[in-house]
Amino acid sequence: MKHSLVKQRYAKSLLDLALDLNQVEEVHADMQLLLAIAADSRDLTMMLRSPIIKPDYKIAVFTKLFDGKMSNLTMQFMALLAKKKREELLVEIADKFLSLYKEHRGIKTAYLSTAKELNPEVRDRVVQRLKSQTGAEVELIEKVEDDLIGGFVLRMDDKQIDASMRGALKKIAREFDENLYTKAF
What is the rounded distance in angstroms from the CA atom of residue 63 to the CA atom of residue 65? Predict the structure, then answer.
């Protein structure tokens, strides 16, 4: 099987099992914790990918790192991956699980780039406006990009709204390059 199909199947199986056992929120929190730790710890990701380290040792590391911090379901899932020699896919499976979780909960992700950090009132208004437009819960991921000069760029699903000064200046530059005007003299 291709790795993308394997990740999809394991993530879907974990979500289905968590739904059956009514532990979706706990497993969701566990997957977020796992991704946060993996992003900060190069050693953990190297250990997961290493074919030299035995699965039993990896399970022992999981137990030391996460015992008491993660649900039993997640701990058993990670042990299963190690036994099946699929632990190198754990981070990708966790990421896929979060995508499936958002899909299950009807949560859409919007990416908002601004020239300066938004104040909380404006952020809340943007989220409320997106909720009313889409009819879904919205997770807003903000990014500050100084080169926007002013305004914002909003991306959600397959749509993008570029209301930035950078975008406006690029549009003007393209119009000048097209040279729509001819000399009359």
Answer: 6
Tens-digit pLDDT profile for residues 70-101: 999 999 999 999 899 898 999 999 999 999 99
Q: Which residues of 116-147 are buried (b: 16+ CB within 10 A; e: fewer)?
A: eebeeeeeeebbeebeeeeeeebebeeeeeee
Residue 175 pLDDT exceeds 90: no
Q: Which of 71, 103, 135 is the last residue of a domain?
A: 103
DSSP string, 87-155: GGGHHHHHHHHHHHHHHHHTEEEEEEEESSPPPHHHHHHHHHHHHHHHSSEEEEEEEE-GGG-SEEEEE
> Which DSSP letter does residue 181 get?
-
Which one of 72, 103, 134 terminates a domain? Answer: 103
Say if residue 63 is in the same domain as residue 121: no
Does residue 11 sit in the same domain as residue 98?
A: yes
Q: List the domain range (segments joined by +) for residue 158.
A: 107-178
Whether 51 is covered by a domain: the verdict is yes
30 in Cβ contact with 76 (< 8 Å): no
Domain total of the chain: 2
Work out whether the CA dihedral 144, 118, 101, 85 comes out positive or negative: positive
- Which of helix, strand or coil describes residue 49? helix
